[in-house]
Structures are given as C-alpha cells and as structure tokens.
Design goal:
alpha+beta, Translation Initiation Factor IF3, 4-stranded mixed sheet, 2 helices, 4 strands, 33% strand, DUF2249
C-alpha cells in the first residue's frame, strides 16, 4: 500500500455547510492518481465518507490523521483502479 501525498489542504471550518461537500468533491476530482487532499473539519466527516463510498467505491483512500474533539484531519486520496481491499 502506498500513501498518497497531500497536495492540497481544504479547510471547511469557515465554509457554509451547504457548500462543503461540493467543494470537497470538486477538489477531489481534480487530483491525479496517488495525490491526496487534507480535509480539515470541525466535526467527524463520517457522512462524507459514506458519500465517497456511494460515488467513488474503492477509488479513494480515507485516513484519519486527527480525530477531534475540536478538529478532524482526514487524508483523502485518489486511488485509481484500487481493488478496495486495503481501503474499504
């Protein structure tokens, strides 16, 4: 398993809630294979994880780097062609 390098930070703590997911997915779609974004959020973005599962299946990695209580940091990587074994 290779770890995607973080190429951009998306801090959504000051973004209106309705604009967060479109910003995150737009940024993710601009990543190349093995690139990643660092998501910084004020709550556990677990619903976003489920949305990624629904829309991108096993073609992304999701690694918590910090888990609250005030800040969550998640590395979300572009994993093209992933078999989804190492990143369910």
């Amino acid at each position: 398993m290779t770890t995607a390098t973080i190429d951009i930070t998306v801090d959504v703590r000051t973004i209106a809630p309705r604009d967060r997911h479109p910003l995150i997915f737009g940024t993710f779609s601009g990543l190349a294979q093995d690139e990643a974004l660092l998501l910084v959020n004020d709550h556990d973005p677990k619903p976003l994880y489920y949305q990624f599962q629904a829309e991108h299946g096993g073609k992304f990695s999701w690694d918590y780097l910090e888990e609250g209580p005030d800040v969550w940091r998640v590395r979300i990587g572009q994993v093209t062609g992933c078999c989804s074994v190492c990143h369910p």
